[in-house]
Design a protein that fits this description.
By secondary structure, the chain is mainly β. 12% of the residues lie in helices and 33% in strands. It folds into five domains: 99 residues, Immunoglobulins (Immunoglobulin-like), CATH 2.60.40.10; 179 residues, no CATH class; 143 residues, Immunoglobulin-like (Sandwich), CATH 2.60.40; 144 residues, no CATH class; 99 residues, no CATH class. β5 and β6 form a beta hairpin.
Amino acid sequence: MSNIKTDYALFDVIDYKGENKLSSYNLDITPLTFKARIPLDESREIPLNNQKVTFDFGDGSFGNNLSSSHVYEYPGEYTVRMIIRDCKNNSILASYSDSIHIKDYITNTFSLSMPPGDIAGGKPVLVLSAGEIAGPITVLSQSPFYQDFQEIYYSVSGSDFKNYFNLSPNKFNTLKKYFSVYERKYLPTLSTFEFVEIENISLSSKDIYAQLNLDGTLSYGTSSSLSSVYVGSSGSKEIYIKAEDQDSPLNISFFKDRENIFSNSLKGYKNNNYTNNLDITLSSFVSPTSGQTLSAIKFTSNGITGEGIEAEPFSISKTQYKGLSIPFIITPVNNDNFTMKSLSAGNPTFVLLSGASSHVHNTDNIVQPSYYSISSLSNTLSSLTTNYWYRGALTFNDSLSSTATRLTLSARNQYAFNTNSSLLSTVNGLVTLTAYPKDFYNFYKHNENFDFEKNIKDMRFQEILLDKNIFFDDFIGTIFGDVSSRYDILGKKLYEKVFNFVSNNADIDVCDINSLISLAALTNDNGIVFDRTLAQEPEQVKRFIDTLSLNYNKFRGSKNKFDENYDPKGTTTKAIYGKNLGDEINSLTYEVTAGNDLVAYEKFSNSYLRLNTFQPLSALSGINTGKISGNSNTYMLSDYSNQSTNASLSGGSTWGWPLILPTTFDINTVNNFYEFYNFTSTTDDTILAGLVDYSNGLTTVSFNEPLSNLEGEDNIFDINIRNSLFSSLSLF
């Protein structure tokens, strides 16, 4: 442009409100309008052209009208110049230029909101106590529309310990000393919250929209409309911080990734001269553990306690088994249920009690040491330098009882604060569990009662085979099993697969998962999406998937309520046949009581009919009240006839009994065709249509078990599944 002539000319800058302003926002609804003012001087040798100009907006774009509007995409300082022309169309650079300031409506920044009271000198102060999770600290972040919504990073300086994510991989890292930033997540299964370590702070973003109001002001919100424009995103998150005891101050710096931030440079509009708040540092001393009060000892499976919450996500399972090692870790916690790590401890003392107890080291119901052992496993974690924890294993060996045993394991230990070893604190803790014998609960399907050994023996027709017991008992019997063998023995599995073939493969209620996938494919059902390769579980686990996925009634079956077993079939005991046929009655003298039904035996057809004894009451009340005794619910069976004092009625047929009789009859005629018996109210109560074979002597699950006893932790299914897993892993 150095060769271009310059001359005097002005231009005005009008903002979206119609005001003379040299600043605006980088939004479509907030343009700047540039209006040229070209002097008309006829004394010029070559007059200026007042109809054509070019505006250089300073961002690489141009306007060619006397009044040109422009929207800047990015914030920054832009120099706007105007090129005018004379009447011979020679370009002339206007000597006047303006510096335009473009701002973000939503700036790329973030802030921290501290808990109430954590402010000193107008600045946020982080208050930390060793081992405790502090917070919440609310992180508020926003980004303009041209900037991806970013995570917030953090770094720590001055710490005596590593970040949790920098620890060498070890499943017991939680026992080490470390610092970390946390988020609080809800656990629906436990109906509570847990604290989870996070490497970066990820915020869920919400879109922000702005619109221009009639009065020229801007307003924004999270909902869009036809008159609004997208201006950026915002989000927030509550975080928490935990550190261990140390002497030097701890500095935690929060920041955004500058390498991926747009700025006001013309060279790509990023990574240059960005002035927004992108770095916040908190500084704090960590109060020592000695200032806290120990509350209890916590038993966990891996050393992870609830950390500030009541729920214990890794507590010792209530379901355990006799003869199996039960590993545990004990750690001390303070009054707020935070693990205290800056401590040293001796060897704890343990007491095992029978039953559930809330008393630690109760002298009542002490289990004799001959029934259990507790061994230390702390040497397996020798790589961990802290010594406040103890790792051990309990083994309960009650071989005398075949029932479940309720147990309470209590622990007591003394802890010394590292800052003063003379300050000792004695704390207690306990855990309650139930030790079950192996195979305590079992359920067997129908056709899982086959005695392969006996059936093979029954086919020993040759005398030479009769005394070959080693072959039949120790060899055949061991491989194929007998009636007392488990359901997964080869002989029972072969028999069950054959006899339950149809239900195992074609019944969608009880078939296995692979068959269900095949049935879905046959029907072109695309609603079931399942990768067949995933159905490769161990056989015992697969059995539980196939059986315990049934609904409650399909699993346990239902009782047969048949109550019309009248024909005794020549027997006299009626133990099986004729259960509902009572004693024969004398029709001439028997007084019927409504509600006590009768059974009529039709001689010529050898069939039985149940007679409703309520029906005759309505008939007799309209015929002859004299036939009803003083008790209105009773009447004589001998009154049954076709005679009636009411001519409008047809006699005996009004009783409603479906007896086949001549047109004219009385009770004596009836006796020629029928015999009468009392009805015995009893049901068959055999169990039908269920998966479980309750007649199998190995089935220990009762038909009467309610659903609440089957499902859930420390209930029958849970106990059975754990038993199966431990058996598969050869832990028994």
